[in-house]
Amino acid sequence: MLFRFLYRAAAEVSWRLLFKAGWLWCGKTFFALRAFKKRNKKGIQFPPFLFFSLTNRCNLRCRGCWVEAGETADSGRQTAAELTTDAIEKVIKIAQKESVYFYTMLGGEPFLAPETLWSTLKNHPEAYFQIITNGFFFEEATVRQIKKLGNISPLVSIDGFEKENDARRGQGTFAKATEGCRELQRQKILYGVATTVTADNFESVLTEEYVNHFIKLGAMYLWFYVYRPVGADPVPEWSVQPERLLELRRRLLRLRRKMPIILIDTYWDEKGYALCPASKGMAFVIGPQGSIEPCPPLNVTREWLGDNGGDFYETMNSSEFLLRFREFIGQKYDGERSQGCVIIDYPQELAEFFRSEQVIDVSGRDLLAELTRREPLASHYLPGQEIPEDYWVYRMLKKTLFFGMGAYG
To answer: For position 237, what pLDDT does the model report?
Structure first.
């Protein structure tokens, strides 16, 4: 697998982009994690990666999405919000002093905030950006700009083949996203595909046929998420049952040994123990209103970018809410060894925790009421049934690089 993947990368991706990713993404991530571990030993709370949720606007209405898409005030939906370039600049300036050089750009749809997005990308050639997108905005000129800058890896959200994908994301979305992938391939961009595994698409996406489909489209990595029933239209019947999670893990390991593409998850470490990147303090979210949120699906806050005179470092390090959130997760699981997803395992208790913290709900809905109504399901936390990585490449990557790498499952 490894040699075939390296051959693919050398033949299908611009060498200039590979070099930039090797240093800006992989190289600086190694140093970011090392600095993060040193901060942890000193009791300093500051993540090695950051999410910027640029806007709550989106051109799609996907089922099971936590973003309440913003529109105009007279539309009956919440008003659209967008981070400013100045706000992002202030955060990055402080973050880079702590060796943070990898940033994930979220939405809504990030390309619907073009001025902020492109200004940030152009202003920071020394950093690397992953853009999580629905793939609708990859016109030739846009992709040429991505290639010219070189410090960007698009991650295109596609949730199965056409039938399963369009059932969640809307009619015609598979075809449109695939068209975007072809344009990225034509211009030799280093890009990936993000697939959420559901009960509906389980049998199709965890197959060689599915992985090969994106290999043929030039994707260099495929990022598997496990479905979380969140948002105004949660579809709990799409949740993956515990016995199927074990099968997911087994299939993922088999595919990793065989397929010439990097297959990523942020659910399990190299020993097979369950992970919650937020509980480890790996990455937090800057919301479009300037809120500092514990993880992408949990749009609640106690802190804002303007707190402490705009000193982001002080706000992060002094946040008792984020610290107690991490402690809350640890109390529900095996402490530091293994942690699942409290959104799925303990939704009602999570709502009570948020109420006790007197959080501000910035979801545009009533997130706490949603959590209170939700019945507990099973996350990827399966104590006593851990399956360790059985391929040395992934053991090494998870130890040194991919552990919570700016993504949330």
So the answer is: 93
